[in-house]
Fold:
Amino acid sequence: MEVFLQLMQLHSTQFMTDLSFPPFTFTPVVFAISVTLAGFYLYHYTATAGWLHRRLTTETSPTRYWAQRIFTQNIWGFVIMGIVPALLNATIYNVWPEDYGLHWPHLLNYLLWLLPAFLIPVAINYFMARNRTTHQNYPQMRIMQWNSRLFLINMLGWLLYLTGYEYLFRGLLLFTLSATFGVWPAIAISVAIYSLAHLPKGMGETLGAILFGIIISIITLYTGTIIFAILMHWALAVSTDFFSIKYNPTMSFINKKKK
Structure:
């Protein structure tokens, strides 16, 4: 409760958002919003509409096909939502990913109150992943029988994808808005854009994105790093996949056969 009350009293000067922009203040805001929307929807169109995997997926085995298709999408998301915006921002404004929170924090300083933030999404997924709607969307690799190697590939793919994703939403967008408008308007605007990006996955996930977006935005600005956002979102995604496989009657984990 004490931490929450402190957060409610914070203002922009108490957050680590000391970004120096050129004289035209709103230009970086327009840039950040435009790049965020363009990056996400360009990824969504090229990856989920089939353009990408039709050209880069060559495997015919169902298991290898899904592993290659989704892992390729993950790499593509990392490039489109992470590398490209970072290069554009460095070229135009001479502002680098580290300035947008892509640096390693002092974990021990935040561990005691951030630990529940990692565990709560996992606990929620333990129950939420039992429903059919979740089974229809996750895991993205529609593999019926999973082994440890496939799941590790899936985990790595999520980590790459979410590093680019969080750099775009919680790095470039959130830090730019916070430096311009202040903390709470920045959180409101960024969460609105973030939740709209989840509309294709249904109203339930869109509403969940609002609460998750608020929490993860507060943590990002409070700590001054997007590393926690990446790890929390990664834990959420991986646990969703794990419990979806576990509770989906058409999927299962298999042990490696002994010779």
